[in-house]
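Example 3.2
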Amino acid sequence: MTGGPATTASPAAPPATPAPPALPSVIGHRGAAGCAPENTLAGLRRAKALDCRWVEIDVRLSADREPILLHDNRLRRTTGGRGSAAQLPLAALRRLEAGRWFAPEFAGEPIPTLAEAVALLASLELGANIELKADPGAAEVTGEVVAGALARLWPPQLPAPLLSSFSPRALTAVRQRAPQFARGMLFRAVPRDWHERAETIGGSSIHADQRRLTPAIVAEIREAGYCLLAYTVNQPGRAQVLLNWGVTSVFSDVPHIILAALSGGPIQAAATGPAVLWRQGTVG
């Protein structure tokens, strides 16, 4: 029997780029990092109390590949612990204290798991930008594990999360594991080839240091159809300038101050801690 002509299978098309979620103009940075310890459940509650609709949180992996909320790889700044989170299993990380450094009232606040954070976000009806913090050599596994966890855990009543990272490898892994989630490419200064980099990960948003933005850069990104999110904006006047340029959203440690200024209303009282003093324009 004679076979037909040989055929070659076409390469699989990359997953489609999802539309970005509807984002508010102000997003609480690391929860509400000027008013409660960053990346904690207390911080998420404070953000809700300050009328945030969305928050940004940082997620990385423990040594046993459990996703936790923590910005720094090193533990010292926010927990007083030694070494790096990537070297300790979840059980050891859970014994650390992540609130006292900010204010005595937060003593005993633990490092949350991603599962705990998602459950609280659902209860508070908060949307979230989840930034992936990938340690060297662990970008792909970080993207895969976090995306897989979110695919299982994310509540249907919330808007789908926006996942962002400085690591294109982590975001490519997200694209393969959970293509339904929108992805954002993080930069300090927006490079000339930003569009090519965003296309590589199927991104729908650009996240950049507000200090390095110009009206021309903002216009270029927005005209190309991308959302533009600017970090970290703690001065109301600067927030207004950026939004007037066309920035979609600003991340703020003191979202209540920015929201009140933009609305022309009174500023809601909220205790602030040392974070505001040292994070007037920090990264991610």
